[in-house]
Amino acid sequence: MEKIKVGIVGLGRLGKVHAKNLAENVQGCQLVAACSVVQEELAYAVTELGVEETYKKYEEMVKSPSIDAVFIVSPSGFHCEQIRLAMENGKHVFSEKPIGLDLAEIKETTQVIESHPEQVFMLGFMRRYDDSYQYAKQLVDSGALGELTLMRCYSIDPSSGMESFVKFAGASDSGGIFMDMSIHDIDLVRWFMKKEVDRVWAIGKNAAYPELDEVGELETGAAMMQLENQAMAILVAGRNCHHGYHVETELIGTKGMLRVAAAPEKNLVTVMNKQGVVRACSQDFPERFREAFINEAKEFIACIREKRQPEVTAYDGLQSTKVALACKESFETNQLITIETI
Hints:
CATH topology of the largest domain: Dihydrodipicolinate Reductase, domain 2
CATH class of the largest domain: Alpha Beta
Number of helices: 11
CATH superfamily of the largest domain: Dihydrodipicolinate Reductase, domain 2
Radius of gyration: 20 Å
Distance between the termini: 42 Å
Largest sheet: 7 strands, mixed
Strand content: 25-35%
Strand order of the largest sheet: 12-11-7-10-9-8-15
Shape: globular
């Protein structure tokens, strides 16, 4: 069967993860094109991944007859425009989260996507494709926990990345900690609860890196959310975890509770020595969610082949972004924010 030809835009840390997976770990596709404004990244794509076409301008790559689909892993502010251009040029689209930073622009982009039903669109909420989260979802959907009443979500990046993030924050807009990090947890809340978020209240503090105050970024943020059925969710997002990369989810229901990754363990090895009983921790998101990134890429290619749409939709991106923006507004105004329904 002929392979799906893919082009990718953005070859930063996450872009390289996707590019390597497409080139080496996902059957049925071929990474043939790459776009970046950084020449070193294009050189990497050619020499390390065997990419045949390189572009400095996305508008040129997306018009190439050589590609059937695009992976968008560029900065968040570019996503909506790049999705539109890809759709209008007949390409299938995988876009990293968030779908955009502005609700009005996202709504317009959603309309563009819906006007091309023959083309596959998929958003990069990779936790849905992690084996542990899928197992937890099966338990919840089977009724093993009864009715869900509360979710608690931690997403905390390793402190080893703080220095580089402080520099990034001074030059770029991540969308804020709730958009940049908690949006994955917001998606999980909607996915598990099958309900929309009604109200949010968010707080935060910069302790180790108070200079983030000057650029409107947060080192640690927390939000409490009430869903439309009165269920509750608590989010904690941070950038200063000294033991590694900590992503944890707890679900509490009327018949029981479960935790996904209560300890962010790297593997199944336990070391017992003079330091005590030690379990190594995952150190970054490419390590923790390696298989999930591969699985979501496989699903995208399978959707193209089978002419179907994935479970994750543009609407999921719109709703999650709406909640993340409400969390940001709540933090900035110190107010409880009620989210308007669409």
